[in-house]
Design brief:
235 residues, Rossmann fold, seven-stranded mixed beta sheet, four-stranded antiparallel beta sheet
Length: 235
């Protein structure tokens, strides 16, 4: 096993210093990849079930082949990797606000999702997903769709945001603008670190024909118990 701790990448960004670290979890004797933004831990490769289920649940009910999928937020890449594991996917566009995160994947610093950037179906776009969702006429180099599915994993929850500018997406008006990026019968799915939120589900139901909150449970090897995320799926 390699050294116990290594900082693979670090850079200042407008949102604070972001770092990618690899460490050995002593209680499990496994390698863990973690992302930290400022003083906040954003994600860990120990807990990726929710990210994978975001892709699985988001694509499960799309009744089509040759799927074009948009993912908001790249992170450790587990949602994007799970999208590509669906043989129906024709193209995957991932919009990521931090160029540093895209660089990690281009340099293949994350072995668990190796091959993500070399897959010919994948296109990584450096940009603000929330600007794309809100804009009637996004910049020419940005993807405009329509997509069969838009999957989003950026904020902690619809209320615990990484930046106040993201708040507009989680309103009826914001979701209506995002819906314009979907094909007929398309799916919007969102990851959240909190239990299902009745108020957000109600907002989603104003805009889409059907909305469901799925509780995703998974073992927590650090506590010996169970943890949970929520995946909202709307059609």
């Amino acid at each position: 096993m390699s050294s116990r701790f290594e900082e693979l990448a670090w850079r200042e960004t407008p949102m604070g210093a972001i770092s990618l670290r690899r460490r050995v979890e002593p209680s499990l004797r496994v390698e863990v990849y973690e992302v930290k933004l400022g003083d906040e831990f954003l994600m860990s490769s120990l807990f990726v079930t929710g990210e994978v289920e975001l892709a699985r649940l988001g694509l499960r009910d799309v009744a089509a082949d040759g799927l074009d999928v948009l993912v908001g937020g790249l992170g450790l890449g587990y949602t994007a990797r799970a999208v590509l594991d669906d043989a129906r996917v024709r193209s995957l566009v991932v919009v990521e606000a931090l160029d540093e995160v895209i660089d990690w994947h281009v340099r293949e610093l994350l072995p668990p999702v190796a091959g993500l950037t070399s897959d010919p179906r994948t296109r990584l776009v450096h940009g603000d997903f929330f600007d794309l969702a809100a804009s009637h006429q996004p910049p020419d180099e940005w993807p405009t769709g329509p997509f069969h599915a838009v999957l989003v994993d950026i904020d902690h929850t619809p209320h615990h945001l990484l930046h106040p500018s993201h708040a507009g997406l989680y309103t009826p008006a914001g979701l209506r603008r995002l819906r314009r990026r979907l094909r007929a019968g398309g799916v919007f799915a969102l990851w959240s670190d909190d239990p299902p939120d009745a108020s957000f589900l109600s907002v989603t139901e104003e805009v889409f024909d059907r909305a469901t909150a799925h509780v995703v449970t998974f073992p927590n090897p650090l506590t010996g118990g169970t943890s949970a995320n929520t995946v909202y799926v709307a059609r």
